[in-house]
Every structure is written in structure tokens, then in C-alpha cells.
Amino acid sequence: MEDGTTTNAAFNKGEANILDESAFFSIPKAPEGYKSGFIGIIGRPNVGKSTLMNYMVGQKIAITSPVAQTTRNRLRGILTTPEAQMIFVDTPGIHKPHHQLGEVLVKNAQIAIESVDLVLFVVDGAVDSGGGDRYIVDILSRTKTPVMLGMNKIDLRTSDSQQIDESYRQLAEPYNWPIVKFSALTGEGVEALQQLLSDRLEPGPYYYPPDYVTDQPERFIMGELIREQILLLTREEVPHSVAVTIDMV
Ligand SMILES: Nc1nc2c(ncn2[C@@H]2O[C@H](COP(=O)(O)OP(=O)(O)OP(=O)(O)O)[C@@H](O)[C@H]2O)c(=O)[nH]1
Ligand SMILES: [Mg+2]
């Protein structure tokens, strides 16, 4: 695995959905000291996790919407820089389950937390922390995976944000989680975030060919883009748990 040539390590981290197995036999060897790892993006629904992943990989992989619980499946976005290969695992927002679908989403997020090298706990940095964030802190405090707290949506902040900062500092301090602020919409602070994340990864191989941006097949992305339009254009007419399958491309 360490030589990075013909690794199948990606198969062992979570349940990778591999596009084409043959591509893995042509993965180049990573340079000396190269870093890599899986970074779970975890947080309440609607805090901007998918928007952030899309911004970081420079392409729309995950659909986003103002409706909570847009993301349904764990979805990987890959960013390969000269120093590191960061594999972001976008997850469905975590909330206290009220119904069966909610329980499945929470369970999936818990699996994601355990199967990554680093967790980026994203919060809505435009408002004070609340019970929903504390529920996630409780889950994260029970894992050995290192955590970083990311305050998103700083573009929406108005004059006095000291109280907001303080509310998140109180969440992170007991666990020594570093805090970083950014806007996934404007990109402010995202470069600094990427640097911090890549600094915290351990040396490792390329898990994916350097030009890959996702592990998902085109068919899946297409289905998701259709689902995004359904979520954006309908409210009452279609259940929120709508699913799309593509039979022919
Ligand atoms: N102003 C502002 N809006 C943002 C920012 N990041 C995300 N949004 C908006 O917040 C909404 C939710 O974004 P998503 O990326 O779908 O949020 P999510 O956390 O993936 O949501 P779930 O998948 O439902 O858990 C969308 O309308 C985004 O455009 C940001 O930094 N600033
Ligand atoms: Mg999402």
C-alpha cells in the first residue's frame, strides 16, 4: 500500500463505489513525503457541507439546496494538490431522528465518522450554536478520529459576531478541536482551510488517480442533478424522500 502503485486501499475505506477498477492499476507512485487521507464532512442539515465540498474540488459533485437533508448518500470528492490528496466524504446532515429515514441517515454519518482519518465538523457560523450542534458534539466526542470545527457562512455575519464565536469556542474547547472560519459560497478562508486539513494528514499514497474528482459514476451524478431540480422546484407536491434512478444514458 505504501508504494502507492497498485493500491486497492480505497476499497477498504468505507464502501467505495469504484468507477472502473482498471484505472487503479495505473495510479502513479506518490512522491516522497506525500500526504493523503479521507476527510469526513459532518454537521447539521443545511450548514453548507456539500457546497463546501464542491468548492474545494472545483466541480459540482454533490447537489445542494436550501431544503434540509438534501444529501442522501455518502459521496466522495477528491482534491489532489502537489502536497496532498484529500478525499472528502460528504455526508447527510445529522439530526435527532424523528422518522425511519432520519435514523438511516444518522447511522450512515456515524459510519462515516469511524471510517475517515479526519473529521471536519461544519457549523453555521452565522448563528449561535444550538442543541443540534451539541447533539453532534456528543457523537463526535465518542470517536478517536481527530476533529476540526469549521464555521461556515461567515459572509452572512453582521456587525457583532463575538457572541457567535464564543458559543462555538465553548463547544470545541473541551476537546481541543481547532476552529477555522470560511464561506463555502464566496470561497473566503477556504484556501487556509485546505492548508490546515492537508497539514493534518499523514503521509500516504494516491488513493485515486490524480485527475479524479469523484468516485461516483456519471449515471449517479445525473440522477442527483435531477433530484436537485425536484427539490428546488417542488414543495408539497413530491415527498422530500423522492429518489431518482436512471435506466438509460
Ligand atoms: N450565504 C451562504 N450560504 C451558503 C454557504 N454555504 C452554503 N450555503 C447555502 O446553504 C444551503 C445549504 O447548503 P448545502 O450545501 O446543501 O448544505 P448541506 O449541509 O450539504 O445540507 P444537507 O445535505 O441537507 O445536510 C444552500 O442554499 C447553500 O447555497 C455560505 O458559505 N454562505
Ligand atoms: Mg449536503
Number of domains as seen in the coordinates: 1
The CATH architecture term is 3-Layer(aba) Sandwich
> How would the global form be characterised?
globular
Helix percentage range: 25-40%
Q: List all distinct small molecules, including ions and cofactors, that are bound in this structure.
A: guanosine-5'-triphosphate, magnesium ion
Low confidence ranges: 1-18
The SSE order reads HEHEEHEHEHEHH
Distance between the termini: 35 Å
Main beta-sheet strand count, sense and barrel state: 6 strands, mixed
Radius of gyration: 18 Å
Model description:
The model is unreliable at 1-18 (pLDDT under 50). The protein has seven helices and six strands; from the N terminus they run αβαββαβαβαβαα. It has a six-stranded mixed β-sheet with strand order 2-3-1-4-5-6, sandwiched between helices. By secondary structure, the protein is α/β, with parallel strands linked by helices. Helix 4 (131-140) links the parallel strand 4 (118-124) and strand 5. The protein has a single domain, classed as Rossmann fold, CATH 3.40.50. Magnesium ion binds at residues 49-50, 62, 70-71, 90. Residues 43, 45-51, 64-66, 68-71, 92-93, 152-153, 155-156, 183-185 line the site of guanosine-5'-triphosphate.
